[in-house]
Automatic annotation (TrEMBL):
Family: Belongs to the RNase T2 family.
rRNA-binding among keywords: no
Protein role: May remobilize phosphate, particularly when cells senesce or when phosphate becomes limiting.
Record Gene3D superfamilies: Ribonuclease T2-like
Protein name per its UniProtKB record: (rape) hypothetical protein
PANTHER family in UniProt: F7A19.32 PROTEIN, RIBONUCLEASE T2
This protein's UniProt keywords: Disulfide bond, Endonuclease, Hydrolase, Lyase, Nuclease, Signal
Annotated GO CC locations: extracellular region
Example GO biological process: RNA catabolic process
Active site: 62, 116, 120
GO molecular function: hydrolase activity; ribonuclease T2 activity; RNA binding; RNA endonuclease activity
Length: 227
């Protein structure tokens, strides 16, 4: 190959390297995690309502978490990228209703969102900046009306016990996607519906079937706590 040929080949190889770097987000998919406030609060540790008042009796957002296909996940990827409330000032009132903090002492939510951004959001900065990260997560929440889906299937937050399989089937039928369910325990040691995991593609906008199916962390019968 002549000098010109080599040059072109090297240019193409360099370009290929560059584009594959650009296309590789550095993780394989997101978990989008919703939380039932009744279960977060009904534990020995209890909870504190945000300074803005008791959240609605509805599923809230826990987070949008980059993950790898082997089950591990990156965290705290960029200590220089601090949470900046000013960047999301237009989203804050929606976040207060859809992404409510429940930790004590009572606070306005910034601490929870800061934790989620710094631990998880900074690991998907190749795809979304801070504003887009919160905006996309809120948009995902709007696309699954989980409480309605469960209630339509006769599954209500009434302290009754329900079959895990019935809950999963209702969510699969209502959303098209199989969820992963996590439980926690109330002070009497009853397992209760706590968090629902969905998988989302690396753009942070489209639900997908989970590339890996972790086991549900719940017994076959679980309580759906009142809130
Ligand atoms: P993560 O580190 O993203 O896996 O989330 C776990 C942390 O988030 C724990 O410290 C939890 O106590 C906290 N957490 C979970 N849900 C909430 C909530 N609704 N409000 C405040 N903190 C929360």
């Amino acid at each position: 190959m002549g000098g010109k040929g080599w040059f072109l080949l090297k240019l193409l190889m360099f370009q290929g390297l560059f584009t594959s770097r650009l296309q590789d987000p550095g993780f394989d998919f997101f978990y989008f995690v919703l939380q039932w406030p009744g279960a977060y609060c009904d534990t020995k540790r209890a909870c504190c309502y945000p300074t803005t008042g008791k959240p609605a009796a509805d599923f809230g957002i826990h987070g949008l978490w980059p993950n790898y296909n082997d089950g591990s996940y990156p965290s705290n990827c960029d200590p220089d990228s601090e949470f900046d409330p000013a960047e999301i000032s237009d989203l804050v009132s929606t976040m207060q209703t859809k992404w409510p903090t429940l930790s004590c002492p009572s606070n306005n939510g910034s601490k929870f969102w800061e934790h989620e951004w710094e631990k998880h959001g900074t690991c998907s900065e190749s795809v979304m900046d801070q504003h887009k990260y919160f905006e996309n997560t809120l948009a995902l929440r709007d696309r699954v009306n989980l409480l309605q889906i469960l209630q339509d299937a006769g599954i209500n937050p009434d302290d009754e016990f329900y079959d895990l399989q019935d809950i999963k089937n209702a969510i699969k039928d209502g959303t098209g996607f199989t969820p992963v369910i996590h439980c926690n325990k109330d002070p009497e040691k009853n397992s209760q519906l706590h968090e629902i995991f969905f998988c989302v593609d690396t753009s942070g906008t489209e639900f997908i079937e989970c590339p890996i199916i972790p086991r549900d962390r719940c017994p076959s019968k679980l309580q759906f706590a009142m809130f």
